[in-house]
Structures are given as C-alpha cells and as structure tokens.
Design a protein that fits this description.
Layout: E1 4-9, H1 16-32, E2 36-41, H2 46-53, E3 57-61, H3 71-79, H4 88-95, H5 97-106, E4 114-118, H6 119-125, H7 127-137, E5 142-146, E6 156-158, H8 164-172, E7 177-182, E8 187-195, E9 200-201, E10 205-209, H9 216-220, E11 225-228, H10 235-252, E12 256-264, E13 270-276, H11 286-293, H12 298-310
Parallel strand pairs: 1-2, 1-3
Antiparallel strand pairs: 4-7, 5-6, 5-7, 8-9, 8-10, 8-12, 10-11, 12-13
Bound molecules: adenosine-5'-diphosphate and magnesium ion.
Length: 313
C-alpha cells in the first residue's frame, strides 16, 4: 500500500501564488516517488475535507499567515494527522522575526539591532513619535519590515530620514507589528538544514540579485537573481554560517527542514536575519538547488521530508 499524502496549498495569504507553484511541483515529485497525492486548496472546510480524505501524512505547501505560523499545524495536531515540517511553537516563533532574534541572541548569534513597534504604539504615540524613536535607536541606512511576513513584502530600505514615516506606515499595512532594523551590508547567503534530531546543514547558497535587495521580484522572476553554490565566501564564514543555521534551527525547535537567511560582512561577521520553516519548494527554489549540490535530487528531497514527518519523535 502506498502512502497517502494530502498536500495543502494556496490559501489566502500574501504568498498564495508562490504556494501554488510549490504545491504543484511537490505534487509531481510525490507522484514520481510513488505516493498517492490529493492536493487541497486551503479554505474554511479544510478540517472536514481532511477527515474525509484520511491521509497518512500532510504536506503543508503554504507560506506566510495560517500556513507557516503554526495555525494549520495546530489544526493538524487536533485532527491527529502527522505533517511535514515544524510544529506549532517553532512555526509561530520563526514567523515572528523579533522574538526569534531574541532566541538567536541567547545562542550567541549576531542579529541586526532592532526596535519593534506595535499598532497600539502607533495609535497611542503617533507616527511622528515612532519615527523619532527609530531615528534615535537605529543608524541609517536601516530596514523597515512587517514583523510577521515573508517574501520581502512591505519591506523598505530607508536611506534618508524623510522616507522613514512612509516606510513604517507601509509595513503596518501588512502586519500589526513593524520591525526597524540596522542595515547589514555584505554578501547575502541562505542555509538549509534537514532533519529532526540528527541535523544536516546543506551547502551555503550565495544570492546575487540584479537589484541588490533580494525583494519579491528578485525572488520570483527568472534571471533577477543568481544562486551561487557553494557560496564564494571566506571558509571560516562558510562554516560559521552553517553552524549558525544549525543553532537557529535548534533554538526554535524546528523539525524536518528550515532555511536561515544570513548576511556575511566584509569582516566575515555572520548575521542572521530570519528562519523560514516552509521555504519555497519549486525545482528552482533555494533549498532544492542546495540539496542538488549535495547530491539530493528534488523528488528524493521531497520524499525524505515525508519520511521525516512520519518518524517517531
Ligand atoms: N537588516 C537587513 N540588512 C540588510 N538587508 C536586509 C535586512 N533585512 C532584510 N534585508 C533584505 O531583505 C530581504 C528580506 O528580508 P528577510 O528578513 O529575509 O524577510 P522575508 O524574507 O521574510 O521577507 C533579505 O533577503 C535581504 O535582501
Ligand atoms: Mg528572507
């Protein structure tokens, strides 16, 4: 009897389109490996649909809100269905950049200095006050981003104080919390980690974007960014980046897979920006590319994620 996989994709998040792409390619990889697959677009009836489908395991191919933040994981816990990837707590922690950075700092990892604003603070203190606070605490250039978003949505690099207000208000359109961070100049890299207890760091990927910033367009338009594997960085920084990704994976309690986004400065200091618990999984995405460099073909990577999900904890 082959294993029945229910793949959940789509949904209503800002990252719906990317999720559909991931879902389609994961589905074909699963079929290729001999799994039975039923693909489900996330809607309010998902619990009932899953109860009827009775899958052996669920593959969550969702990004962002409800998919990557612990919500769907909580639902699957209630339904008693095993699923690919991190549990409720790790997912929620990783989605919250400010809180995950606090945990990374406890592990001795370097993170960009930040201040966090809530929509309550915006209401009580007013935008001018928040602008003044950001200017006081974080040197320019700086980065303004929603605290719980992905795909560089609502993110602005601010070089001049006069652009700060607009950037903060824009980020508030996507989240009720806004993170203002010191801008780290350097080589952008990303590191995948595979495993539950025994972890394996994948080769480090260097990302070169045509525009400098690895934004939504650079991430998803062919030709707008280049993956260099292994990253052309100093050997000590390469090892430190893999170590940092392993520590970050453990610090949040991730399971199955994670991908840490980092920046290496010209002094070979390694800064961690964030951890993604459901990284993009198209054949040309970062993790599949790194896995390939490590000798793991896309269908095998997807199959091993399902196996990790079914492993006893
Ligand atoms: N503090 C920072 N310094 C320099 N670049 C940053 C910083 N924060 C974000 N970026 C740029 O923006 C991109 C997206 O930021 P990130 O924190 O990874 O959020 P997400 O990928 O969830 O949108 C990064 O890949 C990087 O190019
Ligand atoms: Mg990122």
């Amino acid at each position: 009897m082959s294993t029945n996989v229910a793949l959940i994709y789509g949904g209503k998040s800002q990252e719906r389109e990317i999720s559909l792409r991931t879902g389609e390619q994961v589905t074909s990889a699963l079929l290729e490996k001999g799994f039975e697959v039923i693909a489900l677009d996330l809607d309010e009836d998902i619990a009932t649909t899953l109860l009827h489908a009775k899958p052996d395991v669920v593959f969550i191919a969702l990004h962002g809100k409800y998919g990557e933040d612990g919500c769907i994981q909580g639902l699957l816990e209630i339904l008693g269905l095993p699923y690919v990837g991190s549990g409720v707590l790790a997912s929620a922690l990783a989605m919250n950049k400010a809180i995950s950075k606090q945990l990374f700092r406890l592990e001795g990892l370097m993170c960009p200095k930040d201040v966090l604003f809530s929509s309550r603070m915006l209401r009580k203190a007013g935008i001018q006050n928040l602008v003044a606070r950001a200017e006081r605490d974080i040197p320019l250039p700086l980065v303004v981003k929603p605290n719980k978003q992905g795909s560089t949505i609502g993110l602005t690099v601010v070089e001049s104080p006069r652009d700060l207000e607009k950037a903060i208000l824009k980020a508030f359109e996507y989240d009720d919390e806004v993170l203002v961070e010191e801008y780290i100049s350097g080589t952008e890299i990303t590191v995948g980690v595979l495993g539950n207890d025994e972890l394996r760091a994948l080769p480090v990927i260097e990302i070169r974007s045509v525009k400098g910033l690895y934004d939504y367009e650079a991430k998803y338009t062919p030709g707008m960014s280049e993956h260099i594997i292994p990253a052309e960085i100093d050997e000590s920084a390469y090892k430190a980046a893999q170590e940092a990704a392993l520590k970050a994976h453990r610090a949040l309690g991730c399971r199955g897979i994670s991908r840490s986004d980092l920046i290496v400065t010209s002094e070979n200091q390694v800064y961690i920006l964030e951890v993604n618990t459901i990284p993009g999984m198209t054949r040309t995405s970062l993790i599949p590319d790194a896995a390939k460099a490590a000798g793991i073909e896309f269908p095998d990577l997807i199959a091993s994620l399902v196996e990790l999900a079914l492993e006893e904890t």
